[in-house]
User: Fold these one by one.
Assistant:
Number 1:
Amino acid sequence: LLTACGGGGGTSGGGALTLGFAQVGAESGWRTANTKSIQESAKAAGIELKFSDAQQKQENQIAAIRSYIQQKVKVIAFSPVVESGWDTVLKEAKTANIPVILTDRAVDSADKTLYKTFLGSDFVAEGKKAGEWLAKEFGSATGDVSIVELQGTTGSAPANDRKKGFADVIASNPKFKVVASQTGEFTRAKGKEVMEAFLKSQPKIDVLYAHNDDMALGAIEAIEAAGKVPGKDIKIVSVDGVRDALQALADGKINHVVECNPLLGPQLMDLVKKVAAGEQVPPRIETTETEFDQAAAKAALPQRQY
Ligand code: GYE
């Protein structure tokens, strides 16, 4: 009779539990908070963390995952920059018997056995919340409401899903018109640049929907430089809930923020321990999130960690 050794995966000597984490990059305030949460909670959990920053490039993430396989880490976790194109490397991990955990962003692989679980947010629901705020805010508006949209990284789960959730809600009223929609790559610099172009090409902009706070913050600079008042001349709704955006909301420059929680570290380390021990885990774990209007932002700011 053969004795099965639970969990599988290699050991890296000394019996330490080693986690290889392939991060997207450092594109936003959300991402910085997410990285800090992962690093701090790995330390607190006594997990040896190998960390890499892919600078928003899929090929860098694939290379990092391959190097973790080669180093025989016990568990691999990553936040896939885009949804498609992961099957080959995920199969390599599976063949090496190293369990994979998806955090924050999803993949579109048909074979769900290529990873153990997904930990993160419901991005469609976030987009819907932004759309519902808009539908309420402009409920009594007569005439067309012109919306510009700053999308996140092209092909990423949050960009795809936040676009969809929002579109689904505003489709119920034909007066809501998305007049321009382009990627701002989830960064302040690109958000500013694309908003400058929108302001030049669009004669009338009533609302900006930004898929994250950083792009909204960049866009605010462009709006002010164009002699307009953000939050008044152009209403703004964005997603994340980082300090700077809550401050802008408290100051009246942003009108509504949908929260997306980056503090996934503690839950991730729990999952790492469980999959390393060969325990069964739920296939999908979603974080609980709220929304902020101006009063809520003012109340949350003193305690906001990121
Ligand atoms: O909203 C954005 C970051 O994947 C949820 O990535 C995350 C997104 C977040 O760059 O700020």
Number 2:
Amino acid sequence: MTQDELKQAVAEAAVEHILPLLEEDTIVGVGTGSTANKFIDELAKHKHLFDGTVASSEASAERLKGHGIPVYDLNSVSSIRVYVDGADESNDQLHLIKGGGAALTREKIVAACSEEFVCIADESKLVKVLGDFPLPVEVIPMSRSYVARELVKLGGDPVYREGVVTDNGCHILDVYNLEIVDPVTLENQINSIVGVVTNGLFAARPANVLLLGTQSGVKTIK
Ligand code: ABF
């Protein structure tokens, strides 16, 4: 199977996984990226089974609305039953690196509000140690150089993602050459740098389930 077919397989598996959770008042959190897009297209086939969604990006909101699926402001819903999203890397503890699509802050907020976080990915995303994928850090624009200097002190090589402005009007630094052996500690350390909005480590709140597309079928890792 191609990588695209693996993503399609996990998107379909994610819908199967959440079907028992869908009721007329259920809110589904929906992520961002090419795997999440396939999930949105599959979810649309069941749009009459649940109330609506909260989206982690403007792009996903537009795709959902295009299917006629309601998209709510997070402040107008009391809970999200399940959140489905992709990742750039996962270890076997389901600690993730996310944010390659620059939607990390909204993704982290939606994850925090969700009872269950289902991560969907093809097998190329599962790694032993996080950090081959450069860690995205969203920063307040005026703090960018200061935060970059602090990230160097933590052992990383930050690179400004030029031309990208997030949905929150902020900038992204991609931090190369981190070998992340303690994701929870590093997530907290980076969050403590003044000017950082969020970093792409999802370790304090990892995924609950990883649906991994492999050549021998979709594996469920908990
Ligand atoms: C989002 O989309 C991100 O957090 C991650 O950066 C990316 C994964 O994209 P894809 O599914 O296209 O590989 O989930």
Number 3:
Amino acid sequence: KIHLPGYDTEPALPRCSVFDYLFPDPTSESSSPYPCPDARDVAYIDGLTGREITRGEVADQAKRLAAGLRSLGLKRGDVGCVYGMNSLEWVNAAMGCQAAGIVVSPANYGYTPEEVLHQIVDSTAKVIFVQPALLPTLQKALSFPHAPKFPDNRIILLCRPPDKPDGRFKCLEEVWSDRYEPLRWRRGDETATAFLCYSSGTTGRAKGVETSHHNMTSQIQALNIAYTQLRKGQDVCLGILPFGHIYGLTVVLHQPLTVGVPVVVLPRFEEISVLSAIQRFKITWALVVPPVLIVLLHSKNVSKYDLSSIRGMQSGAAPLGKDLTEAFERRFPSMKITQGYGLTETSPVTHVMTASEGQSHRGQIGRLMPTFQARLVDAETGKDVGPGEAGELWFRGPSVMKGYWKNAEATSNAFAHGGWFKTGDVAVVDEHGYYSIVDRVKELIKYKGFQVPPAELEALLLTHPKIADAAVIGIHSHEQATELPRAYVVPLTPVSEHTEFADEVMRWVAEKVSNHKRLRGGVCLIKAVPKSPSGKILRKDLRAMAKKEQED
Ligand code: 4UU
């Protein structure tokens, strides 16, 4: 009952570092098995200014930064936190860390000071790269009593703000040095951790997911076989997905670089800047999340731009329904929509389809990628299910994470006997090997592709002086093509004005969490949170309740 990918080729699995894989040194033994695109190829384009940077420059600047970081005393295996919106400087910080063997831990730019601090402390970051606009949030985070001390030279600005030419902190270019020495790479080193992205997994708070060099390079090899959308010399890719999330990190920042396709880097999704970037840079392919399709579908500005260059988009990170796909393709007949699926823990893509498959398999996530093995397991019986039957999706393969950072308990809970990683998603496979996600059995909520761990909001709500108990679930919004976090709360004392109290709680939470975690699905008052005898919140009951309310 183990499902294997049905591709003719299984990729060779690289044993080098991610950096050597991306920028092979022809003289080195451990160099990349992947054919090396030209150093003169444009790798990234700043979507706001039009500034271009070639592959050669990306590698060269990364080596300079790596040398500078070493002279600051940073060592291989140390962790560097990259905290900012997408930019060419973000690329330099991440690539520079990689060239120095420093683990890249990207922080979400929407984080509150508390959330940033959680990641800095948990990841044991030794250096922080920060976008100047986020410096106040970072400084607030580092002013909390339990915050670690960072000397000034371990906080590096991604760029120098023009209005503050001589601030307290250095910027990337001021750290650069010319004394780069390549890392010595021995067999076995490929299992070292390369990235620490944060995910809540199936339960609890955000945890560091240890993605090794081998995890990432195997994933890119697999993508280069299964995900053949991008052609050098023809394609230009839209880079709006946050590089700090595994989807942006792997599929936007890394993979196009290995095929020599330029990525237009924009700080974030914003309708007008995306439309004008498509026109200006003749973008051909975009990686998106479902809410982006909704915005474009209803946009009044589309006709003002020449979007004729773009031939398709791939959606992922949240369910994309058949209806939305069809509505989108009706409105934009020249565009094809495909879907992929994955998790931070699988580096991430496990399922994907080509543009032509997208047409005939709307609403599905595609076929299993090369290098992965999958099983669909019935949660109750623990037995594998047959075609057409729903089961929890389990994976094994070289891109499945090493484990959760410094969290042996969460790691052991995430894997079943035999090394199978349990996703917490329920899927069905048809007789042709195409999968559909039909349910989610883990706690996770996804707001526009961003993770919202219910446990985190519940813990916060319990600190509210007027709340006795709380549970948080996601409710589906058809209009926005996303889930919205909703809280069910039990007030400590009877509340006379329900709406007023609900609004108060909503505002109180909004002040304390990042934007994507706000209780946009509302706050409902209940008498008691439904729980199992062992005290576990019965989210299924709450979901059923929410569904009934929506229907009524
Ligand atoms: C229904 O979201 C991601 C990674 C997504 C991704 C990346 C590259 C998708 C396609 C691609 O090409 O990672 P996380 O860790 O933030 O969230 C993982 C969870 C999954 O367990 C699932 O519940 O996000 C949900 N998810 C999806 N659900 C991800 N993709 C899909 C999807 N349909 N297509």
Number 4:
Amino acid sequence: MATNNIVVLGAGVSGLTTAYLLSQDPANKVTVLAKHMPGDYDIEYASPWAGANYMPMGKAGSNHEAWERATWPALKAITEKYPEAGIHFRKAFIYNRKKDPQEDIAAFFTDLVEPNPWYKDVVPDFKPIPSDQLGPDMDNAQEFTSVCINPPVYLAWLVGQSVKNGAVFKRANLKHITDAANAHHTGKKADVVINCTGLSSKFLGGVLDEKMYPARGQVVVVRNDPGPMMAVSKTDDAPDEALYIMTRAVGGGTILGGSYQKNNWDATPDLSLANRIMARAIEIAPNLVEKGQGVKGLDIIRHGVGLRPLREGGPRIEKEKINGVSVVHNYGHGGFGYQASFGCADTAVSLVKEVLQEKSRAKL
Ligand code: FAD
């Protein structure tokens, strides 16, 4: 059997999902190289900071929609079959406010809060919330069954599954994408390198993608559990502040979010923003705390800041030859890296197959 030597650069949700899918084919010998691995918390590593849930945001008819559409069945199957993966089903409530102009966070949520969204036939139990049950400042609202992922548990599960399939994990901090081709665990040159370096694709030699920029997300993780997940189209506090709540599976705590601060690289939690996040969460979900307790009733585990790896024009999933090395890119997933993970990784795997076929044809 011919073997394919493949290096995946990056161990966030994009790299790990791609490695997990590639490792399912015994012909693929997969090495995963990364500066940061599951267990690390670092501002350069977005994946551990995510909520993370499935609240689709892709424009109808776009690649983004196709990737999110393709990801739901995969996440659902993992949730049902592998409780140890750290994902559970949760009810989600989505609220769209009349007064929100389509800017910043409201624009980010436009397709999620749309009253007749494409995803209504994808997620189970979708139904509009009748208008007589909504406050006067709400345009529309809907509920459906979604999932909430516990990223530290889920990322470690992806590592475990890939290792079980023969993948080898190594730490590395590369200056140039082509260096990855010489770091395959067999000592042989890689046939193809998958670039899953997220926001760092802006700085990685051979890639230097100037279209990459961060959207800073600040969260408060608490022990309180309000039940269902919630998201609101916008807040009154600032155009780049958000309001969402989700409780992670298997004891991961409840994420109170958030913010969507474009081009803000600050890794330090802003405590006045944290106070606004907590106050807004209690306003929409008063059962987070005992009556009258207010913010003091929240039992804080930690404050967190992550940088969503945004890219002008959307994620880059394409193949390229760089100094003779075949590279498949899979980065730039903004605030939807988990909910589009399987769709994007599937596309990247198809491109890897194309590269391998081109190579084998060239050898004939
Ligand atoms: P990263 O997780 O950043 O991983 C990049 C990897 O590349 C790391 O392993 C890093 O060490 C490695 N790397 C980079 N450069 C080098 C180098 N030179 N050499 C070696 N290794 C390198 N998404 C959802 O779908 N649902 C949500 O609910 C959600 N909520 C979010 C909330 C917050 C607050 C934030 C910040 C994000 C959220 N996201 C959510 C978005 C999601 O977290 C990201 O889209 C996703 O984590 C990006 O993953 P990635 O693997 O592409 O990048």
